[in-house]
């Protein structure tokens, strides 16, 4: 059993998480727990798989269904990335060394 199998077995009761990107202009996301912040250049979403950052230009919240955990974002999508606790610690360590 690898890491992803363990994760899936503990998340049986949680909703499925999917990303569907159409022509870099429409992003549909399922498994969203909460929209933490957003503006026309960046969205920060809490999903069942961790925090998700979407960056782009002229981003707009097209659809928000909190009961089903579905979010649709339209605009020019430049980046979609997950923020893991492990990568935050690495970044923090790097910047702390840089600014000593």
From TrEMBL:
Family annotation (Gene3D superfamilies): 2.60.40.2000
Pfam families for the chain: YabP (PF07873)
GO BP terms, alphabetized: sporulation resulting in formation of a cellular spore
Protein's recorded name: Spore protein YabP
Organism field: Ornithinibacillus halotolerans
